[in-house]
Design brief:
This protein is α/β, with parallel strands linked by helices. The protein has helices at residues 2-26, 72-82, 97-101, 120-129, 147-156, 168-178; strands spanning 64-68, 87-91, 108-112, 138-142, 160-163. The chain has a single domain, classed as 3-Layer(aba) Sandwich (Rossmann fold). The chain has six helices and five strands, in the order H-E-H-E-H-E-H-E-H-E-H. The chain has a five-stranded parallel β-sheet, with helices on both faces. The two termini are 30 Å apart. 30% of the residues are buried.
Amino acid sequence: MLNRLREVEKNENTEEDNNLNNKNRKNGIDDDDNNIGGKKTTKKENEHNDESTIKNTKSLDKPVILAIDDSPDILKTLHIILRNKYKVYTLPKPEKLSTMLSTIEPDLFLLDYKMPAISGLDLITIIRKHPKHKKTPIIFLTSDASRDIITSAVALGVCDYVVKPFKSDKLRAKIEKHLNI
């Protein structure tokens, strides 16, 4: 029975991944070599573990990751590439970070740098002021790899960064490194 349940879940995951891959190819995203990036998706396409579907994370066996990015495509892609090993929550509206932190306890943060309402640098400060997240790993996702931006992020408490577009294997390796997996 358990094997049958795993097989059904695997088939569902594969079907969702195939649908995203087909959509990504239509939008010019080459997912064959795990290159991340792309165009906007609809709100319905982005409905996965965002702030509206938060549950108690203390009872989960998987490490919890909070991904904050204004791009629904990036959030959906992060969710898909990380969901097998991590409990991934996404936050498309960075201004809701304080509310989210009162609801979940992430083991690691993935932050976009450029967002319309609040920059990733501002989010680092908010996270580090939170009593439970003074030392929680933060990985910066940025398309701007300028020395000044990276230096500022590290000075504020970022432990690592990944330049967009990025390879999913590289991101997974950095996450594992900082979660000591």
